[in-house]
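Hey, I'm writing a tutorial for new members on how sequence and structure tokens pair up, and I'd like a real worked example in the thread rather than a made-up one. If someone can provide the structure for the chain below, I'll link this post from the tutorial.
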Amino acid sequence: MKTQDENAKLKYYTASQWQLIWWRFRKHRLSIIGMTILGIFIIFALFPEFFAPYSATERNGESVLCPPSKIVFKNAEGKFSIVPKVYGFKRERNKETLKMDYVVDESNVQPLKFFIKGEKYKLFGFLPGSIHLYGVEKGYVHLWGTDTMARDIFSRTIFATRSSLSIGILGLAIAFIIGLLIGGVSGYFGGWIDNFFQRLTEFIRSIPTYPLWMGVAAAMPREWGPKTVYFMMTIILGFIGWTTLARRIRSQIISIREADFVIAAKLCGASDMRIIFKHMIPTFISYVIVDLTISFPNMILSETSLSFLGLGLRPPVTSWGVLLKSAQNLNSIINSPWMFIPAIFVILAVLSFSFVGDGLRDAADPYSEKS
């Protein structure tokens, strides 16, 4: 009879590559936390209409730059209640500054309800619905306050998650395909083909990013709609983001192109493309996934920073960069700090992808150490 320790060893040494990667990865606590946060963001991006109480463009005309709603867990007698309640605001003139300020109106209190009927929407553009995660029966609730056009910042941030993440995913997919093709062909064939692609890579890497974007932004016709600008940004991010991945794939191909299994595939009559994509790349696909994960934050930061500078997406498209652009003034910093809340999403997304990338990098070579 085999002991429990022997069974564990047998399971370990007979496991597939992906099983070993997962066993090592799940021991990386920060990576698991990062993956959980990214999972939440992806759910937000898939179903923003449900999680957001209002649409990204709905306005509450009486609450321009309204601070976050006050939520309390107490009943009319002042005792703890599991049902949260929301206080409204009323406007009063500040006797010192003579400005109209928002003051909590304790006479206007409503229970915060979950899975409540609200504004109608269509999930994925065709599934009708009207149930929202939370809301109030009458009036509005603004968990994160409102912006200069009286739009709910929480709702706009949830909708912006879809735009920012989708740009990163699509841009990275384009960069992955280009990097895979150029890196694979360059490393496998070598010679003048390799020399040509390496000079092309160096040329693209030498172009300053922000002057390039300024030129692209100036070249984009002003009559282009937001969807056209969105797709153009995605394509451009993909076409300038493949160089690092291509070089890493090239170096891996060069290191194994004289290996026995590659020579055997050639002797069996396999085509060059089959050898590259069916035999060589699968041997280091885990490292490619790590590179993709680490590159993803760069895509998100590129979109956010460019939109923040006014060179990327433009309203009415909602993205994290567009939301932060509306807060880039001293008045917002002093009087409306809640308008910077979308920056928390950017920070969490970038850190989460970095943590996941670190965990995958540590787990990509599972035979190096048994832990």
